């Protein structure tokens, strides 16, 4: 069996409104073996899954996630912006996704959104939720805020971390070793086969994002990446099956 992770970006976000239970479930149906999602906190400290700091684009409410309570947030429609067929989809909690992933036997990549808005103690809260669900061995924490990742590793050395970055970092596997990250979540153009090999020597794997074109998926699979983050888990699933034949 192919062990390359098929990571559905915000769920199967090409087909369903991103970061909703509909998108996560569709991801599973389309063959994803992991779900990537974005975690933020409400004003009353609940962990919720939404990409933008502002609620405007996906719910129409012109407020920041950090300024609404969970109750207010749950009244919003996070599906209609994508297609009226998804009217009534809610902004999910991290707990809901962890329950789904646990019962389906898949992994979760929780991206801590801790940049534009800073959420003090989001690391503690996310780790506590993961432990409550017994999912420490099935979660990869990632973030563009590498201080957050270093803190996660100090708090929970047993939970894997992945460094998110866009640029051509110089020898990122050295940097990863420094904060004990197991994975490089690199923008996909910043991944060359020789780098994948050098990272592997350090025990560091690549999970590039966000890869939607089959030709680019093929290039990365050939380079030896350990997983790919995609809006189209069905396309990646097809390629992974081919590799088994
Ligand atoms: O985790 C990969 C990817 O989600 C990072 O960027 O902006 O889509 O959260 P973004
Ligand atoms: Mg993300």
Automatic annotation (TrEMBL):
Gene Ontology biological process: lipid metabolic process
Database matches in InterPro entries: GP_PDE_dom, PLC-like_Pdiesterase_TIM-brl
Source superkingdom: Bacteria
Pfam families found in the cross-reference section: GDPD
SUPFAM superfamilies hit by this protein: PLC-like phosphodiesterases
Annotated ranges, domain GP-PDE: 4-240
GO molecular function, one term: phosphoric diester hydrolase activity
Full protein name: Glycerophosphodiester phosphodiesterase
Lineage of the species this protein comes from: Bacteria, Bacillati, Bacillota, Bacilli, Bacillales
